[in-house]
């Protein structure tokens, strides 16, 4: 892959659109929450923490619209809906797990560096 100007991430490039979709804060966290198999909406809210039901629904719809998440409705009373990764979504499992592992290992250092910069500039 070349990083020369004009070869990657052009405004109308599919790679750029894909990066925009999966790089949002809630998309990555939602995809990670689905890596172990089908999960119901309420369970996702609990797993993710800090996300509203509305934002989760918007995130799931966007991921579903782009073929990364499958929504399955079961004909039961009351209706049951589960979300899972599609085959395409499964291809993101290893990169997301690797990124999550990196974040766990380096999160404190990143936060500490940021806080140090804020202190040195006098902003909080």
From TrEMBL:
Presence of keyword Oxidoreductase: no
Keywords: DNA-binding, Transcription, Transcription regulation
Record InterPro entries: HTH_HxlR, WH-like_DNA-bd_sf, WH_DNA-bd_sf
Domain HTH hxlR-type stretches: 13-111
MF term (GO), any: DNA binding
SUPFAM superfamilies hit by this protein: Winged helix' DNA-binding domain
Protein name: Transcriptional regulator
